[in-house]
Design goal:
The structure is a single chain. By secondary structure, this protein is mainly α. The chain has three domains: 79 residues, no CATH class; 62 residues; 125 residues, no CATH class. Helices cover 57% and strands 6% of the residues. The chain has twelve helices and six strands. It has a two-stranded parallel ribbon. It has a two-stranded antiparallel sheet with strand order 3-6. It has a two-stranded antiparallel ribbon with strand order 4-5. Strand 4 and strand 5 form a beta hairpin. Helix 5 runs antiparallel to helix 8, helix 9 packs across helix 12 and helix 11 packs antiparallel against helix 12. The longest helix is centred in the middle third of the chain and has 27 residues.
Length: 289
């Protein structure tokens, strides 16, 4: 821990409730706190700080890494990192989005969608690894059926959470009117849009990391690539939704015409045209934050 105003010297505190609460009681009212996203380890501090009325910022480690390079830091230690984060919050907080804790339902939804993605990767790895084995067909089939059944159960739980609330159910149904958006993609979108306030479809595209990153200087015009910022699993689901939409009657002509014009069809045709256009129908009018 470090303070930009040097109210206390950098220190280490344990990630236990009593220790964190004791530290937070020492801070003046209205303080801003920044913490790097570290799987689930940052959640205790962020949640307790938010409940005590502090403004909390959850920082992408990539942002703090680039900020450190911009500040000319040559080393990396816990002490240096804490001082850097304190400086970043003090000078850049106006450009950052304060953290809003999820509701219990939103947290459960996030966990289900993330664990489902992990299970899907494991299933794909098993299928690829075992496909050439001979004489074990029944055993391999039985093994593959186990994650399939668990995924089906997870999907059913996701749908039940969405349909349990009239607000969730309405937004969820509206999202699924978009070509290529199914139950899982719709649930992930609804869960994100209801929690994160966004001004427009363009803002959502940037939030999910599907925006093109320019590489231009004077006469130089480099190849644009996706920024790939924000929630990676939602970005993956949106890519799959766009690929599914590209095979449908309304979107296939647009996809094919784009492929004929650009070097990377998946990059420009699907991400920037299909997703941005379809999301505009959902974000405007905006969903409730």
């Amino acid at each position: 821990m470090a303070c930009a105003e040097n109210r206390f010297s950098p220190r280490k505190i344990g990630n236990q409730r009593a220790t964190v609460l004791s530290f937070l009681k020492e801070l003046p009212a209205g303080s801003r706190l920044g913490v790097e996203s570290t799987s689930s380890y940052h959640e205790l501090l962020a949640t307790l700080a938010y409940k005590r009325g502090f403004v909390v910022y959850i920082l992408n480690p990539k942002d703090t890494h680039h900020y450190a390079k911009a500040m000319g830091l040559r080393g990396k230690t816990d002490r240096v990192d804490a001082q850097l984060i304190a400086r970043m919050i003090a000078h850049e907080h106006a450009k950052l989005h304060p953290w809003i804790p999820p509701t219990p339902e939103q947290r459960q939804m996030d966990q289900l969608i993330k664990r489902r993605a992990t299970l899907s990767r494991i299933r794909a790895a098993l299928t690829q690894s075992l496909k050439d084995l001979e004489g074990l067909g029944p055993e391999i089939k039985a093994l593959r059926q186990r994650p399939d059944k668990l995924i089906v159960a997870m999907d059913a739980r996701v749908i039940s959470l969405m349909e349990a609330s009239p607000v969730h159910k309405q937004d969820y149904a509206r999202l699924q009117t978009i070509q290529g958006v199914g139950p899982v993609v719709g649930a992930s979108l609804a869960n994100t849009l209801e929690r994160v306030p966004l001004r427009s479809a363009d803002a959502f595209v940037a939030f999910t990391g599907l925006d093109p990153r320019p590489d231009e200087s004077r006469e130089h015009r480099g190849r644009r690539r996706l920024s790939k910022r924000g929630p990676s699993e939602l970005r993956r689901l949106l890519y799959l939704a766009a690929m599914a939409a590209a095979k449908t009657k309304p979107w296939k002509p647009l996809y094919e015409s784009t492929r004929a014009r650009v070097v990377s069809p998946a990059l420009s045709g699907i991400y920037f045209i299909s997703l941005q256009s379809t999301l505009a129908r959902v974000v405007s009018p905006p969903l409730r934050p």
